[in-house]
Write a structure and sequence with these properties.
Chain lengths: 79, 253
């Protein structure tokens, strides 16, 4: 999770903004567009790019589900 | 469909923001295009991580009252409970003068402040892992007793402090035992209670500064955290938030 925090911190404010509004506040694209006063297309594009950025920061960890497995390992085998 | 134009549409697709016609067209394309399919999977993976991770921020006690006060008509008042709301969050708020916007800006400030409280976030993550492990390994207590006069002395010699141990059976929260656990490399006391069939773990250790009580939720578990009187408490359970708060209040008094 530390890596995810770091990745989010590295985002430019306008990208972090849309990510937070969507993933934490659960707002619709339309609502986000209203609040940030940006066109809908811009919101869409920023959001997918923000996620792409996080994915890139985490490298191959996501694809192999390693971050998920790491937490699982902690809980199950106590390692 | 041109792949290079579809990235933003793919993001919207993952968020269920496309209409039926667009979704259908996109799905057809995804059937034929491995690159776009991979992109969708990445987007979904990141969403999954954000949702399951510790990104629900703790709300300090009095938070909602302070928002209400900040929104009262009058000269613009800066909310003072959060020392470092980033400048851009304030710009967002002053961009248009609606109550919702200010509340949101403050909430965003809270989130990003929480981000820099990484110590807190990791401790909370560890609390959840400890709780889950104790349940999965069926290792709840090393001293199995509902008697606080048996549990409390058990910790003597095992810890550099003596945790406060109280049984609350008469309030429906019986003590069922205790064990040692670790947090951030330090050995802490774990007190185990039950609320009907729900297990409640209470992790406690010395802590000099006071921490305002905060309730949060992670991976479906409810958590209450505070520090006062020289001790820090993390209380976690799958029992509902209301009852957990009731229990936390019992512990605090």
């Amino acid at each position: 999770m530390q890596q995810v925090w770091k990745a989010i911190e590295k985002l430019e404010p306008e990208f972090r903004e849309v990510l937070v509004l969507r993933e934490l506040e659960g707002l619709s694209y339309k609502e986000i567009a209203g609040i940030t006063e940006a066109p809908l297309g811009t919101v869409m594009s920023r959001l997918s790019r923000a996620r792409e950025h996080i994915r890139r920061c985490l490298g191959t960890e996501i694809r192999r589900g390693r971050i998920l497995h790491k937490e699982g390992r902690n809980a199950v085998s106590g390692q | 469909m041109l792949c290079r134009d579809s990235k933003k549409l793919l993001g919207a697709y993952v968020d269920n923001e496309l209409d039926v016609v667009q979704s259908a067209a996109l799905e057809e394309h995804l059937g034929d295009c491995a690159d776009c399919q991979a992109f969708v999977e990445d987007q979904q993976a990141v969403k999954g991580l954000l949702q399951q991770g510790n990104f629900r921020f703790s709300v300090p006690a009095g938070f909602h009252e302070q928002i209400k006060r900040s929104l009262e008509p009058g000269p613009a008042k800066k909310a003072r409970f959060w020392p470092a709301t980033p400048a851009w969050a304030w710009k967002l708020a002053t961009g248009f003068a609606t109550a919702a916007a200010l509340a949101l800006a403050i909430a965003l400030g809270v989130v990003l402040h929480q981000q820099s409280n990484t110590g807190q976030a990791f401790a909370q993550n560890e609390v959840v892992d400890n709780h889950i492990r104790s349940l999965l390994m069926n290792h709840l207590a090393d001293v199995d007793s509902t008697d606080q006069h048996t549990v409390k002395p058990w910790f003597n010699g095992k810890l550099s402090f003596s945790p406060k141990v109280t049984d609350f059976s008469d309030k429906g929260f019986p003590l069922i035992g205790g064990r040692l656990d670790t947090m951030e490399g330090e050995t802490v006391a774990a007190l185990v209670y039950k609320r009907r069939q729900h297990v409640i773990n209470v992790f406690t250790c010395p802590h000099t500064d006071a921490i305002t009580p905060a309730a949060s939720e992670q991976r479906g578990y409810h958590i209450v955290h505070w520090a006062d009187g020289g001790m820090e408490y993390w209380v976690i359970s799958d029992v509902n938030a209301g009852e957990l708060q009731q229990f936390a209040d019992l512990l605090r008094h």
